[in-house]
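Saturday, quiet lab. Running sequence design on the structure tokens for the scaffold JK sent over.
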């Protein structure tokens, strides 16, 4: 530091960027994320406004609200979409834009049209409306739905609608717009040779396929004025046979770059592209950055890149090396909305990582909620704007250093309580210790280490190798005891389960274990499948044995299909409707539940992943050791990380 000049740790990420008539305060943008609390009229609600404002308060340079369909009659690709054009909705949009801007961020609105996925719900097929679907050309979708070529008259109507909605957004106080031309929606469909077979001026050559996008951008520009920032989101590669590649995307970008202020390069199409657009834990972080870097070589407009980004060092290098001008994040800003501020302040060691479990996506499909396994305050931003200080600070004893116990300890300490956390083992992490040597799950184990770092930072005393017993509690005399002692592995009553060639899945990360080259995994739940995949990636020959008809039924709806695809890709064998009846030195003898036929699954090592059972005996022994007693996590009922962290968070709020 020289004088009053701060020597920033990440100077390129912290540097401002001018876009049109606006200056972004840094190079980190919050990607379009929808909030599931959408009423039938498409209004933006107060909880939604609070959701978006949190990202602005956390330091993002711009926050984009998703996803406003400009032509509701034909363009709704989900059963619920926000709609700034519906009567009475302007006020909610204006409040949201104001909430973002008052925190110093640019307020953006994403404008889109579902095209051939309109008139339906692309996520929940039970909401199919039966409305006619329009796309660039006549075709039949994989689900059997018929798509009708969009007539010129409707094309012109949609172009005008983009302009009308852009004008409404500016009127509401948004100072930036994103036009969605990627991921398989209407504008992308016209760009793509996979879908556009037109013979008129909107098809054929790359210029023809880009015409609709170009005219939409012209319509928007007329509506908002010459210097109003327009961001274009496009897929930099379709990753599908017959689709365009990065060279094709570059040609499109060169045709429209003079009409926009920021080119946001994503990837993939709708059909089968989810794990490309939202890189899973099985992909390297920043897997799509190369697309932005390649396109940037050929255009002058600033480039934004996206896709599993969260590591400050990686993102700083992206900007410093010229691969892109802006980094865009979604899931990372759910796990830690204050990531940009922490980077700008040089407090990156405090960033809570996203481990890409897809809870955020899956919960929207199942419960209709926005939740995050790493951050239990997500989705309840109105009530969790600040963690309230306790009017009556107390002494809190937490038994167990897994994710639930650590979250409880951290939150209680933030509220001003005196907190002691004791962990029976010599290492924190609870059940997640088993993940520390699994490459695609290592971020999950790191999450508990981050919680521990933050807990100590806020004054929590942590004692390792210390079991909470009635005697210890008697000596400490806590006002509150939060019990998070977890669960223990189930060892099914199978002859041979105690043999030397049997290893519990929960102990796989321990050093010194000898795992043979041929492995049988008994139990095809989430743990068994992920452990089987990990061993197969290490070169083992793996067979998963599961008594149920399918694997990983306990995995969430977004993670499960990706996990099963990885099992297929790596060549893991699976036996469903099959029960292990005995184990010998040869392997596992199993019975097919349908045919009653017995067979031998030869294996050097048997991995037992038969689930866990709550440590109820420990819980009951501690129940009367403090005036206030709470149970958190698997010791109450075996579940998952999101439930453990949520229960821990709210237990501490209730103290």
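Result came back. Writing it out in full:
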């Amino acid at each position: 530091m020289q004088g009053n000049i701060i020597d920033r740790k990440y100077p390129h990420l912290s540097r401002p960027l001018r876009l049109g008539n606006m200056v972004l305060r840094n190079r980190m943008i919050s990607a379009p994320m929808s909030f599931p609390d959408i009423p039938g009229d498409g209004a933006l609600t107060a909880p939604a406004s609070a959701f978006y404002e949190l990202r602005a308060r956390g330091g993002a340079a711009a926050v984009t609200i998703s996803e406003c369909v400009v032509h509701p009659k034909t363009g709704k690709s989900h059963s619920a979409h926000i709609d700034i054009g519906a009567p009475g909705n302007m006020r909610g949009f204006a409040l949201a834009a104001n909430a973002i801007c008052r925190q110093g961020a640019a307020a953006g609105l994403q404008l889109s049209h579902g095209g051939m996925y309109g008139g339906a719900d692309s996520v929940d097929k039970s909401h199919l409306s039966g409305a006619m679907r329009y796309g660039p050309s006549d075709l039949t979708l994989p689900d059997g739905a018929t798509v009708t070529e969009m007539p010129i008259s409707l094309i012109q109507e949609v172009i005008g609608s983009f302009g009308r909605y852009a004008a409404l957004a500016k009127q509401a106080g948004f100072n930036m717009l994103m036009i969605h031309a990627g991921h398989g929606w209407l504008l992308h469909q016209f760009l793509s040779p996979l879908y556009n077979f037109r013979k008129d001026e909107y098809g054929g050559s790359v210029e023809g396929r880009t015409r609709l996008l170009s005219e939409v951008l012209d319509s928007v520009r007329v509506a908002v004025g010459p210097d109003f920032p327009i961001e274009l989101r496009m897929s930099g590669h379709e990753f599908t046979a017959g689709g365009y590649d990065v060279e094709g995307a570059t040609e499109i970008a060169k045709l429209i770059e003079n009409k926009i202020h920021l080119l946001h390069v994503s990837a993939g199409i709708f059909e089968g592209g989810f794990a490309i657009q939202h890189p899973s834990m099985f992909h390297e972080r920043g897997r799509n950055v190369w697309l932005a870097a390649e396109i940037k070589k050929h255009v002058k407009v600033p480039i934004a890149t996206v896709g599993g980004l969260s590591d400050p060092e990686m993102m700083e290098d992206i900007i410093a090396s010229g691969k892109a001008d802006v980094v865009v994040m979604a899931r990372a800003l759910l796990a830690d909305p204050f990531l940009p501020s922490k980077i700008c302040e040089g407090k990156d060691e405090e960033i809570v990582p996203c481990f890409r479990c897809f809870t955020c996506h899956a919960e929207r499909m199942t419960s209709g909620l926005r939740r995050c396994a790493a951050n239990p305050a997500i989705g309840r931003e109105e009530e969790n704007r600040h963690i309230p200080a306790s009017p009556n600070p107390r002494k809190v004893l937490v038994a167990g250093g897994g994710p639930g116990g650590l979250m409880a300890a951290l939150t209680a300490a933030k509220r001003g309580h005196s907190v002691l956390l004791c962990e029976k083992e010599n290492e924190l992490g609870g059940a997640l210790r088993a993940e520390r040597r699994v490459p695609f799950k290592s971020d999950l184990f790191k999450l508990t280490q981050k919680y521990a770092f933050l807990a100590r930072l806020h004054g929590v005393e942590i004692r390792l190798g210390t079991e909470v017993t009635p005697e210890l509690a008697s000596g400490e005399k806590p006002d509150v005891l939060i019990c998070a002692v977890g669960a223990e592995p189930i060892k099914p009553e199978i002859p041979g389960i105690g043999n030397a060639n049997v290893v519990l899945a929960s102990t796989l990360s321990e050093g010194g274990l000898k795992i043979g080259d041929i492995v049988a995994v008994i139990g095809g739940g989430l743990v068994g499948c992920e452990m089987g995949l990990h061993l197969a990636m290490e070169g083992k020959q793996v067979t998963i044995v599961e008594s149920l008809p399918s694997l990983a039924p306990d995995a969430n709806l977004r993670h499960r299909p990706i996990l099963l695809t990885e099992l297929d890709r790596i060549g893991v064998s699976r036996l469903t409707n099959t029960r292990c009846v005995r184990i010998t030195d040869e392997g596992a003898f199993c019975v097919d539940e349908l045919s009653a036929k017995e067979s031998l699954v030869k294996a050097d090592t048997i991995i037992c992943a038969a689930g866990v059972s709550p440590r109820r005996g420990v819980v009951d022994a501690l129940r009367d050791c403090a005036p206030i007693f709470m149970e958190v996590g698997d010791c109450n009922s075996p579940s998952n990380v999101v439930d453990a962290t949520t229960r821990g968070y709210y237990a501490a709020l209730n103290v």
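Notes for JK: The first strand starts at residue 17 and ends at 19. The chain has 21 helices and 28 strands. Ask whether to fix the surface positions before the next round.
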